[in-house]
């Protein structure tokens, strides 16, 4: 009897162990490893609003990829996941977040809200990938637009999905040059690589296009540290400038525009980012016909596909404060997914090769946005729009921005082929 009990107990324990083994195996199989993109961005600090706005864009893009089945790979479909890595708006912290991404074996990182940070990440990734090829990293840049990043400091491991500063600035300066009501301009920017470049290049382009136009002031200010722009705007007003050119972004632009309204500055603002992150609401009625912006897309470009895309974003993020969506960020995610699927791998080397020269046909956006990733320097070539602030509901202004009652209407469309510029990249390929 005792032997029978022992045998029964032994059999029961064996069956239990086998059952637990099956459960553990099934659970492991159900936890499919996602394809991860590490977002290295200031998600706290003075530019947290800009970082969170980017996160919403990338998270929404990932949601749409996953809704159609995820990333299709030979071993089966895998979900796409955005991993938040808060750099606090600091370059050293961004490098620390890169190390964290490597430790987590995240093969793809995205950053863009600082060209200085992007340059540091490119250098660090170049060194890391040479030293540790088993854990290579690919850098996806959605907003860092200093031209040097795809020229002298170009890298096989870096792909830029935004038009660089000279491409954007050229479109803006063409519009400014044609405005014969303007004969004086003030240049102002943030005192770091991108802001310095915009001020310097604006001076060069205006000398070529409008040598008669007077530059009545030129200034660089500390980045992210100015709380009161009234002294700066007072100088602009005193100069008699009829136009202001700035590459400012985030709170540095919003606070400057707000100060311009408070002192009654009557000047046109030619901006890179004047159509978002609180700027339209900050200037209000004073911005109608006065604030211009340049981007690869805006909500009022027109067309059913564009309208559906924008409406879907607003349905997903209905709060007016969350109204910040860019076609280029959606295109970046879609192109990465397509490159992974073509490569049949998440290894950054074959994925990078699949991205080189890749054409984007608007997949995931309804087909309204197109572009090509130039293989020579990894610069995305896409259309640009210069738009002008107007009251919502007027001709061509179906949508407003951030619930402000003001939107933007196209004043110039630049086809992709006309945005392309020469490069000085000498690509070193592995």
From TrEMBL:
Matching InterPro entries: BCAA_transport (IPR051010), Leu-bd (IPR028081), Peripla_BP_I (IPR028082)
Top-level taxon in the UniProt lineage: Bacteria
Keywords linked to the UniProt accession: Signal
Domain Leucine-binding protein: 34-390
CDD domains the UniProt entry points to: PBP1_SBP-like
Secretion signal span: 1-28
Family listed: Belongs to the leucine-binding protein family.
Name of the protein: Branched-chain amino acid ABC transporter substrate-binding protein
């Amino acid at each position: 009897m005792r032997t029978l009990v022992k045998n029964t107990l032994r059999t029961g324990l064996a069956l239990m162990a086998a059952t637990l083994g099956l459960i553990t195996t099934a659970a492991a199989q159900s936890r499919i490893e996602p394809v991860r993109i590490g977002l290295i961005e200031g998600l706290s600090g003075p530019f947290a609003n800009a970082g969170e706005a980017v996160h919403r864009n990338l998270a929404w893009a990932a949601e749409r990829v996953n809704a159609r089945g995820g990333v299709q790979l030979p071993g089966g479909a895998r979900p796409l996941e955005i991993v938040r890595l808060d750099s606090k708006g600091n370059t050293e912290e961004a490098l620390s977040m890169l190390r964290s991404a490597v430790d987590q074996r995240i093969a793809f990182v995205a950053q863009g809200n600082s060209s200085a940070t992007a340059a540091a990440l490119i250098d660090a990734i170049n060194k890391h990938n040479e030293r540790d090829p088993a854990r290579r990293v690919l850098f996806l840049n959605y907003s860092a637009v200093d031209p040097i990043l795809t020229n002298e400091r170009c890298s096989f491991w870096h792909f830029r999905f935004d038009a660089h500063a000279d491409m954007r600035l050229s479109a803006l300066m063409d519009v400014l040059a044609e405005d014969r009501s303007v004969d004086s301009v003030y240049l102002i920017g943030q005192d770091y690589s991108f802001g310095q470049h915009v001020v310097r290049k604006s001076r060069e382009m205006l000398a070529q296009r409008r040598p008669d136009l007077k530059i009545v002031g030129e200034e660089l200010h500390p980045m992210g540290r100015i709380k009161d722009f009234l002294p700066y705007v007072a100088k602009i007003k005193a100069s008699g400038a009829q136009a202001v050119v700035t590459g400012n972004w985030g709170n540095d632009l919003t606070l400057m525009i707000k100060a311009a309204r408070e002192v009654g500055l009557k000047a046109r603002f030619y901006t890179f980012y004047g159509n978002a992150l609180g700027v339209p609401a900050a200037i209000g009625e004073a911005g109608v016909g006065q604030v211009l912006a340049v981007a690869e897309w805006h909500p009022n470009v027109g067309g059913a596909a564009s309208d559906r895309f924008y409406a879907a974003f607003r349905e997903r993020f209905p709060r007016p404060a969350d109204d910040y969506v860019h076609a280029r960020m959606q295109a970046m995610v879609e192109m990465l997914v397509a490159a992974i699927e073509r490569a049949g791998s998440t290894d950054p080397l074959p994925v990078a090769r699949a991205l080189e020269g890749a054409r984007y046909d608007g997949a995931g956006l309804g087909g309204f946005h197109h572009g090509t990733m130039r293989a020579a320097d990894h610069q995305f070539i896409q259309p640009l729009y210069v738009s002008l602030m107007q009251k919502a509901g007027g001709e061509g202004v179906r949508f407003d921005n951030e619930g402000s009652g003001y939107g933007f209407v196209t004043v110039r469309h630049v086809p992709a082929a006309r945005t392309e510029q020469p490069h000085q990249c000498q690509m070193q390929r592995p």
